[in-house]
Amino acid sequence: MVADGGGEIQSGFGDDDRMSPVPEVPPKLVTYQLNKISALGIADLGLLSANVNQLHNLLDSSNTQPYYYFNLTLIAASIILQIAVGLGIVMNNFYKVLKKDTYKSGIINDMTVVGVFLVTVLNLFITSFGMATSL
After folding, report:
1. What is the per-residue pLDDT for 110?
2. How does it sit in the membrane (predicted)?
3. Tell me, what's the pLDDT at 48?
4. Distance between CA atoms of 52 and 79, rounded to whole angstroms?
């Protein structure tokens, strides 16, 4: 509490521009976050293209593989989940860097991490039950 010359007591908050309740994010940190998000997006795009290629090869096998429908379901689920993770990465970038909303950013980040884990597990099953090669 600060008393001014007129006898009024001021709280110390208000129009004082010297103090900001939210600290500014350094420009280098914003650049780092944007580069990190871009790298995650590129890695997601690479995995997505690999799954689309697996889907193409599976559909070309025309139901001759022993685990055809199981693989088809796993690859489709993985592709859908990868698209959702990609959107989560973009939304996380939007809320964290541009809006500075750490609560929403934290929730989206947690959901994105769970999505990446599920994509990894699905791709392990896809690889395990992959197409048999004829020798």
Report:
1. 87
2. Multi-pass membrane protein
3. 85
4. 8
How far is 115 from 96, CA to CA, in rounded Å?
18
Asked if residue 33 is part of any domain, the answer here is yes
Q: Is 126 buried (19+), middle (13-18) or exposed (0-12) by CB count in 10 A?
A: buried
Q: How many domains does the chain have?
A: 1
Question: Which whole-number Å values give the CA distances from 5 to 18, 19, 27, 86, 88, in the listed order?
Answer: 20, 22, 40, 58, 54
| List of the chain residues with pLDDT < 50 | 20, 135
Domain that includes residue 56, residue range: 25-128
Helices (H), the chain: 27-60, 68-93, 102-128
Tell me if 32 is assigned to some domain.
yes
The neighbour count for residue 85, using CB atoms within 10 Å, is: 24
**In degrees to the nearest 10, what's the CA dihedral of 4, 10, 15, 16?**
70
Residue 118 lies in a domain: yes
pLDDT (0 to 100) of residue 132:
63
Beta bridge partners of 3: 9
39 assigned to some structural domain: yes
